[in-house]
Specification:
Blueprint: E1 28-30, H1 54-57, H2 63-70, E2 75-77, H3 80-86, E3 94-96, H4 98-104, E4 109-114, H5 125-137, E5 142-147, H6 151-163, E6 166-172, H7 173-178, H8 180-188, E7 192-196, H9 202-210, H10 218-230, E8 235-237, H11 244-263, E9 270-274, H12 279-295, E10 300-306, H13 311-314, E11 316-321, E12 330-335, H14 357-364, E13 369-373, H15 375-389, H16 397-410, E14 416-421, H17 429-435
Parallel strand pairs: 4-14, 5-6, 5-8, 6-7, 9-10, 9-14, 10-13
Antiparallel strand pairs: 1-2, 3-4, 11-12
Helix pairs in contact: 2-11, 3-5, 4-15, 5-6, 6-8, 9-10, 11-12, 15-16
The chain binds pyridoxal-5'-phosphate.
Residues 122, 124, 151, 241, 274-281, 349-350, 394, 396-397, 422-423 line the site of pyridoxal-5'-phosphate (PLP).
Family: Belongs to the TrpB family.
EC number: 4.2.1.20
Subunit structure: Tetramer of two alpha and two beta chains.
Length: 436
């Protein structure tokens, strides 16, 4: 699989879905909204509870992303600059896990789609470079954001450096103290990283006043990053998961996987992805769901979430805020409540109280199912995968691996399983060390 800039020229051939040939970076993002049997409930204004207008979002996001948030067009063209950046690590490999199959003694064929080949080691740059691009085109000079374990902060810092923007990141206090490497990654890219809650914002000061020893949460850090963007006309805010435009950008994962499977004459029976805010799961699974809805394919999708933060399997489906201070729009989603502070599980990227509205809606419609995985079982699966395939999965990704391994162990026939391996665990080795 080559990654030279030549590969990002428009593909000479497309299949009947309009998906590019597998050896090339996709030309378009895929939008599940075009194929849903019922539209996804709209985001609401936090005070009026009326559907959001583009003007409501303009202080935080560029118009191109606001349009992508609500579009129902099936295909959205990927700007050439973004395709060229994608070509630094895309297409990502789809690999058959032959040694894992053997170790499990399963008749199933197991493939993994590996997003750990990106420069920061996860799927998050797929949306980071797109968001930085549209902001740069609109003349914005700085992006603010929050991060948990640091994958998103590192991804956005990298994207901002590639596109000439400043980047300011609020990182959940517990991770800021315990996991310094991704902060070093952010700083290497030129990003600035603060622990959250901080005394730099009004919402941060209020949270510190309420609980000076708080270890922070993603919801608190979002409040700070949103406030910092809203009070600076040259700055916008960027979110690494949950929103429709993020899932749209991540659809390159599933489109490539579909094309790669087509090329080798395989059809996925079941797809496993880990679910925190829902972006890598949606990115991998939605192109498969689109094929189910349009062409009567029957690929099943299983969202794998941590038992310690089970928004899909235990949360309520209702309108809720994305942050603690209640500054964000109201999103209809599966939620554990905006004030839920998850226990400090190792998979930092899965510690969010809500689930993407589009994933939540698809779950309500019965288009996908969900399971909750205990941390012990997730790490056991991660170690088993590492010993069979060599790659040490990110702690988040181990939840998908655990779901797939349990399924493969029980399989009695030669079905085809696809695992979304959202990232590698090289910067999370202390968590593996504790487990081993
Ligand atoms: C952030 C992250 C996740 C969780 O986020 P989603 O939006 O649910 O994809 C999963 N895996 C990795 C490697 C991450 O960095």
């Amino acid at each position: 699989m080559t990654t030279t800039p030549d590969d990002v020229r428009p593909a000479p051939r497309t299949d009947p879905l309009g998906v590019v040939v597998p050896s090339s970076v996709p030309t378009h993002w895929y939008n599940l909204a075009a194929d849903l049997p019922e539209p996804c409930p709209p985001a609401l204004h936090p005070s009026t509870r009326e559907p959001l207008t583009p003007d409501d979002l303009a202080p935080l996001f560029p118009m191109a992303l606001i349009a992508q948030e609500v579009t129902t067009e099936r295909w959205v063209e990927i700007p050439q600059t973004v395709r060229e950046l994608y070509a630094l690590w895309r297409p990502s490999p789809l690999v058959r896990a032959v040694r894992l199959e053997r170790a499990l003694g399963t008749p199933a064929r197991i493939y993994y789609k590996y997003e750990g080949v990106s420069p920061v080691g996860s799927h998050k740059p797929n949306t980071a470079v797109a968001q930085a691009y549209y902001n740069a085109v609109e003349g914005i000079t700085k992006l603010t954001t929050e991060t948990g374990a640091g994958q998103w902060g590192a991804s956005l810092s990298m994207a901002c450096s590639l596109l000439g923007l400043e980047c300011e990141v609020w990182q959940v206090r517990a991770s800021y103290d315990a996991k310094p490497y991704r902060r070093m990654q952010m700083e290497t890219y030129g990003g600035v990283c603060h622990p959250s809650p901080s005394d730099l914002t009004e919402s941060g000061r209020a949270m510190l006043a309420a609980d000076p020893d708080t270890t922070g949460s993603l919801g608190m850090a979002i409040s700070e990053a949103v406030e910092a963007a809203a009070t600076n006309p040259a700055a916008h805010y960027a979110l690494g998961s949950v929103l429709n435009h993020v899932l749209l950008h991540q659809s390159v994962i599933g489109q490539e996987a579909l094309a790669q499977l087509d090329e080798i004459g395989e059809t996925a029976d079941v797809v496993f992805g880990c679910a925190g805010g829902g972006s890598n799961l949606g990115g991998l699974a939605f192109p498969f769901l689109g094929r189910n809805l349009r062409d009567g394919a029957t690929t099943r999708v299983v969202a794998c979430e941590p038992a310690a933060c089970p928004s899909l399997t235990q949360g309520e489906y209702r309108y809720d805020f994305g942050d603690v201070a209640g500054l964000t729009p109201l999103l209809k989603m599966h939620t554990l409540g905006k004030d839920f502070v998850p226990p400090p599980i190792h998979a930092g990227g899965l510690r969010y109280h809500g689930m993407a509205p589009m994933v939540s809606h698809a779950y309500e419609l019965g288009l996908l199912s969900a399971i909750a995985v205990e941390q012990e079982d997730a790490f056991a699966a991660g170690v088993e995968f590492a010993r069979a395939e060599g790659i040490i999965p990110a702690p988040e990704s181990t939840h998908a691996v655990a779901g797939a391994i349990a399924h493969a162990r029980a399989a009695t026939e030669a079905e085809t399983i696809v695992i979304g391996l959202s990232g590698n665990g090289i910067l999370d080795l202390p968590a593996y060390h504790q487990y081993v």
